[in-house]
Amino acid sequence: MPPMNNFWIILSHTYLTKLKTKSFIVTTIVMLVLMLAITNLNRIMDLFNKNGVADRIAVLDKTGQLYTPFKGQVKLINKNLKLSAFTGTEKEAEKKVENGALRGYLILSLDKDNLPEGSYNALTIADSAIYTDLQNGLQQLKTMLAARQIQLTDAQLQKLYKPVLFKKAALERNAKTEAELNQARGIVYILLFIIYFAVLMYANMIAMEVAIEKSSRVMEILISSVSPIRQMFAKILGVGLLSITQLVFLLSAGYYSMQKNMEELKGSFSDFFGFSELPIGTIIFAVIFFLLGYFLYATLAAFLGSLVSRIEDVQQMISPMSMLVVAGFVIAAFGLSKPDSPFITVTSFIPFFAPMIMFLRVGMLNIPLWESILSMAILTATIISLAIFGAKVYRGGVLMYGRSSSFKDIKKALQLTKNK
Fold first, then answer.
1. Three-state DSSP class for residue 2
2. Percent of the chain as helix, strand, coil, to the nearest 5
3. Beta partners for 117?
4. pLDDT digits (tens, 9 = 90+) for 302-332
5. Backbone phi, then psi, for 104, in 5-degree steps?
6. Which residues pair with 122 in a beta bridge?
């Protein structure tokens, strides 16, 4: 049988076998459910809060005059908070909180300067958002009443609290505006997560695939008919096609769900993360750097997986590779707030970090085209070099059996390759 026919047989076998496995189907369904849950989070939260109990706060106004203006101030801050005047005692309010009828209760009173103060009580104070909204509402009411005490007019009060005019201007030609940067930051953040998890998950899958075949001695049969190098690249491409299949399902479902909920999310989630107008250039660069990152780590994972004979040893062997992916993501997360720092610029040309960090710079800055091309060229050269070296290690590694969990085994694998 011609060598290329063997290559395509292994590629299709790897793809179809993994596609039909229960673990792949279950993982895809779970991830699909999570994707739909995230994009429908507002509706899900509304279902749990349909009776309004979660955000219902009783207000015990000891002054008899603060409740109405306080409720008005809170309404401007958070319209979902349901405040109600409570005429009972503190003990009665406490019982309602314990029974789950109320989220908490707030006691309003006046201090020695005849200005409002409050005391919020709940089963737990873990939800800082509610506490902060109530505090801000009371603070605004106190400011308003204090202004009346010193006889400030409404015009004077507005002048006092009018935000200072502070403009930011970028001197660089074609530099992104603040609104564009916020949108770019959101898009890059989401796509970085996709690149991070996909590269880590599918690279691990390749290492496990090789280790499983070795542990079952299938490799001895394969290497008698197909060269180990063709096996390695067939598996890399097979799992690559599998990853694209899974991502197409997930991203299509996520995009459809986002479009269905766009009206509800408009002005908040979708605008902040930039989903209302995705730049085609950013998507193209995301695909390019995803593919380059995948092939870089997939090649590395394949030859590391060939060094182990037991599935239990896979994680230990590929843990340094996993740490490189994690390090790249952490650096990229830092770079979201400082994309033009020298540290981010330098690390964007380091091959193992470039898929995420150069993509970050491309998405958030108007960098010269030669920089992104140079980074891609370095990545491509690294992949080719790693593939040549990895193929040699793979060729000897698949013949190694016994406990293997040390990088010293690379030398043994290379020696076996020379002796073949």
1. coil
2. 70, 5, 25
3. 109
4. 777 777 666 777 777 788 888 888 888 889 8
5. -175, 180
6. 104
Residue positions counted in the chain: 420
Closest C-alpha among 261, 285, 287, 289 to residue 275: 261
Nearest to 195 by CA among 412, 379, 420: 379
Report yes or no on whether pTM surpasses 0.70: no
Per-residue confidence (pLDDT) for residue 359, from 0 to 100? 86
- What is the distance between the alpha carbons of residues 56 and 140, in angstroms, rounded to a whole number? 21
Question: Going by C-beta distance under 8 Å and a sequence separation of 6 or more, which residues neighbour residue 147?
Answer: 156, 157, 160
Task: For residue 207, give the H/E element and its range.
Answer: helix 178-215
Structure tokens at 230: 């063709």
DSSP state, residue 54: G
Q: What are the E-state strand segments in 261-371?
A: none
Tracing tokens 């020695």 back to the chain, one arrives at: 112
Q: 47-54: long-range contacts at Cβ-Cβ below 8 A with a sequence spacing of 24 or more?
A: 52/82, 53/100, 53/101, 53/102, 53/103, 54/103
Q: For residue 1, name the pLDDT band (cuts at 50, 70, 90).
A: very low
Q: Which of 299, 315, 292 is nearest to 208 (CA)?
A: 315
Q: What is the DSSP string of 391-409?
A: HHHHHHHTT--S---STTH
| Mean pLDDT score of the chain | 77
- What domains appear along the chain, each with residue ranges and CATH number? 52-161 (3.40.190.10), 178-419 (no CATH)
- Decide if 396 contacts 416 (C-beta within 8 A): yes
Element (H, E) at 45: helix 41-48
End-to-end Cα separation, the chain, in angstroms = 22
Q: Which residues contact 35 (CB under 8 A, 6 or more apart)?
A: 250, 253, 254, 257
- Read off the pLDDT band of 272 (50, 70, 90): very low
Is residue 332 within 8 A of residue 238, CB to CB? The reply is no
In this structure, the number of other CB atoms found within 10 A of the CB of residue 332 comes to: 27
Residue 105: phi and psi, rounded to 5, are: -135, 150
41-55, 166-180, 321-335: least confident range: 41-55
pLDDT at 349: 93
Check: CB of residue 107 under 8 Å from CB of residue 62.
yes
Q: What is the pLDDT of residues 92-133, one digit of tens each?
A: 888 988 888 888 899 999 888 888 998 998 888 777 788 888
CA gap 52, 85 in Å, rounded: 15
d(CA 145, CA 132): 20
